[in-house]
Amino acid sequence: MHPMLNTAIKAARRAGSIINRASLDLERLNVARKGPKDYVTEVDRAAEDAIIDILRTAYPDHSFLAEESGVHPGNGQAPDAVPAFQWVIDPLDGTTNFIHGFPNYAVSIALLQNGQAQHAVVFDPSRNEMFTASRGSGAFLNDRRVRVSGCTRYYDSLLASHVPQSTGLPEGSPFLGLLTECAAARRTGSTVLDLAYVACGRLDGFCGKQLKPWDAAAGSLLVIEAGGLLADFDGEQTWSASGDVVAATPKVFAQMIAHLAG
Known about the structure:
By secondary structure, the chain is of the alpha+beta class. It folds into 2 domains: 3-145, 2-Layer Sandwich (Fructose-1,6-Bisphosphatase, Chain A, domain 1); 154-261, 3-Layer(aba) Sandwich (D-Maltodextrin-Binding Protein, domain 2), CATH 3.40.190. Helix content is 34%, strand content 28%. It contains 8 helices and 15 strands. The strands form 3 sheets. Strands 4-3-5-6-7-8-9-10 form an 8-stranded mixed sheet, sandwiched between helices. A 5-stranded mixed sheet has the order 12-11-13-15-14, sandwiched between helices. Strands 1-2 form a two-stranded antiparallel ribbon. Strand 3 and strand 4 form a beta hairpin. The longest helix is centred in the N-terminal third of the chain and has 21 residues, at 3-23. The protein is globular and about 50 Å long.
């Protein structure tokens, strides 16, 4: 295992310990609102600080992009410089689930080299499930190699979504056919876990709109290394800029793109 991936795993476990301890006493949790239906807690911030502390100690010249605290340039790096190495961090994806005691949330860490994900960790602390990937080396769940599902028929597929109005979609929505013609669609509240579940075959596909870099950086590499496909709604590789993501097993992916186009 690559040393950088090992360090990311260590950081994810440290964050997971903070999250698990806090989950035992949710009534004392201080919750703030970042925007409509968008929450942050002191647990998000403490977990993020712990991750950055471990990674910065090991790699002081690397840059960081973290959900709660933004951009942290590496040592000696100009604030507006394009970093060769950048860690993209979501310390607690699924905060709304977490504050309700709904155990579907995760820590997400990815290392980008010149803008391309090289290593990825998604850690579910409530289930002690560690998803990892390194470019060209496959995707793993707790050291067991995983692959996307073998589903080929769209109407048999189980999808997850992160799209506006994913319940009660208005007539004419591009997601209407996409999410009603599959076997079933889920809105789980944690994009990083949705992508990890596509990678290990628990889900056959995922569709997300208006995602942030930390929502998909780690999960995208998991899906690709597990044999899946990932792109924007036009099937192009501009998803990191647009925030629009389709990820699925290959046969289902093609049918998802066709539904969005039609």
